[in-house]
Structures are given as structure tokens and as C-alpha cells.
Amino acid sequence: MAYFAFLGYLFVGIAIIADIFMEAIEVITSKTKTVEVVDKEGKRYIYDVPVWNATIANLTLMALGSSAPEILLSVIETVTTLGEPAGELGPSTIVGSAAFNLLVISGCSIVAVGDTPKKINDLGVFFTTAVFSTFAYIWLFLCLQDAIIDQQEAWLTLSFFFILVILAFLADKFNEHQQNKRQTKSDIEKKNR
User: What gap in Å lies between CA 125 and CA 168, rounded to an integer?
Assistant: First the structure.
């Protein structure tokens, strides 16, 4: 009984720390700066614009915040077992978290939406992350076939993350450019009427 009480105490502690960590990340990513814009007629407008790009924030800080417990468990296991064969805790927590995110969260989201049709606003970013998510599972399968991960595979895996972030950012900017183009075209059409 004391074991389960202590385990529950640890879970509550992790939940509190993860909640504080996520709140801190939300504060960081919601930061804005004031920008002054002058239009063609010389009128000045002041806007508050976000400092962080939403796509970059979601792929980096938000992902780090939501996966912090698994990452910490993996790092702690790795550091405490240096020079010994790798344990199962790190890979199990990462794969378990990824499976939960892919299956349970996706399923709950689909059930929550119900029959109401929804539209994906930025299909480029969605497509980029979907392709990279699928590739990540295939890549990890290929890396783990011989049960050994060498440094080349580790550095390649890390570089794939940066490639994902850059491509998703470019897709986001392309979508933003297309929206601005459509908005300008509709403004011109309204003036011509």
C-alpha cells in the first residue's frame, strides 16, 4: 500500500511540474511585439505581432513540453547506465508516448469533432508533418533492426528534426504568402466594383 501511495505522490509531482512547464512555454510562445506599418497613402497602423511563429513553436517548444517526462526518463536512464547495455525504459516510454499520441489522441480528436466537417487551413504544414511522422517510424524501424544505434544514425535522426522544422516553416510561409495574395486580389476586385 505504501508503494502505491508513493507512486501516486510521484505522479502528482510530475503532473504539477509538467503543468508549470507547459504554462511557461505558453507564456514564451504568446509573446508579441509592436510593429508600425505605413500604407501607400501614408497612414500609420500599429499592430501587435507574435514573436514566435506558431508552426515553429508547436514543433519545438510545445512538443518538448508535452514530451518532457519521457525525455527526462530516457536521459536519466542513459546517464545512470553509461558503459552498460541499454535498458528498455527509454525506448519504451518514447515508443509508448508516440503510439499514444498517434492512436489515442487522434482517435479522441476524431470522436470530438463528430460529424461536423472541419477544414485544415494550412495543408502544406499538415502534409509535411504527416510525411515526416510516417518517415520517423520507418526510420526508427530501420535503425533498430540490428539493435544498435551508431553515431551516424543518431546524428542523421537529429538532422531530420531540423529538416522537418525548416520545411514546415517554409510551408507555413508559403501558405501565408498565398493567403496575402488572395486577400490582395479580393481587395482589388472590391475596389473595381
Answer: 5
Total residues belonging to the chain: 193
> What percentage of the chain reaches a pLDDT higher than 70?
98
Helix (H, G, I), strand (E, B) or coil at 179: helix
- Coil, strand or helix at 45: strand
Residue spans per domain, the chain: 52-186
Coil/strand/helix, residue 115? coil
Tell me: pLDDT of 106 over 90.
no
Q: Give the SS3 label for residue 48.
A: strand
Are the beta carbons of 123 and 110 closer than 8 angstroms? no
d(CA 80, CA 83): 9
Cα→Cα distances 26→21, 39, 56, 67, Å: 9, 32, 13, 15
Contact 46, 35 (CB under 8 A): yes
CA distance 60 to 67: 11
DSSP state letter for 121: S
Tell me which residue of 33, 32, 40, 36 sits closest to 184, measured CA to CA: 40
Phi and psi at residue 32, in whole multiples of 5°? -125, 160
Q: Indicate if the pLDDT at residue 131 is higher than 90.
A: yes
H-helix or E-strand spanning residue 34:
strand 32-38
Strand extents, DSSP E, 73-164: none
